[in-house]
Amino acid sequence: VESMPKGLNLSTFDGSFVFKYALEKKENKITVVVQLESKNAMVVPENYQMLKDFYSNLVSTQKEKIVLKKI
């Protein structure tokens, strides 16, 4: 593995949405664990932008690449 993204723990200000992204390299294996937790089924209009920003961060984190090196 030449490079891989760092893990991330992200939550909304009220804790209603939580995102955990963890990567681990052991020997010749890479483990990626993604967890998304939603405590509210409804979001009030005042919080739409907050939720949009949350998901934007979530997507950009998952787009980061793991770079493997040929040996």
Terminal Cα span: 10 Å
* Overall 3D shape: elongated
Residue-averaged pLDDT = 92
User: Helical element count?
Assistant: 1
Strand content: 25-35%
Order of strands, main sheet, comes to 1-2-3
Low-confidence stretches: none
Radius of gyration: 15 Å
Describe this structure in words.
The protein is built from one helix and three strands; from the N terminus they run βββα. The chain has one helix at 48-63; strands spanning 8-11, 17-26, 29-38. It is elongated. The model has no long low-confidence stretch (mean pLDDT 92).
Keyword list:
71 residues; 1 helix; alpha+beta; single chain
Describe how the helices and strands are arranged.
Blueprint: E1 8-11, E2 17-26, E3 29-38, H1 48-63
Antiparallel strand pairs: 1-2, 2-3
